[in-house]
Specification:
It is a single chain. The protein is mainly alpha-helical. Helices cover about 70% and strands about 0% of the residues. Helix 1 runs antiparallel to helix 4. The chain is elongated.
Length: about 70
């Protein structure tokens, strides 16, 4: 079935809530201590972290919305 306009508003709210939580990473960035750590060679590059975490938070929002819809709240 197609989502209703109300459920799409709920999805937007789930995404906004998750991205608000994710934005804490912009305020509490790792400092020089992280750069100085001895990391294994397979450590992802620094640019990958915000990309991957953003995707994870959006997917988390969609998963929460799907649970909310399945529970009959939508």
């Amino acid at each position: 079935t197609m989502p209703t306009p109300e459920s799409l508003v709920a999805l937007a709210l789930f995404v906004l809530a998750n991205l608000a939580a994710a934005s804490s990473g912009a305020f509490f960035r790792p400092g020089e201590w992280y750069a100085a750590l001895a990391k294994p060679p397979w450590t992802p590059p620094n640019w990958a972290f915000p990309v991957v975490w953003s995707i994870l938070f959006v997917l988390n929002a969609v998963a929460g919305w799907l649970v909310w819809m399945t529970a009959g709240a939508g």
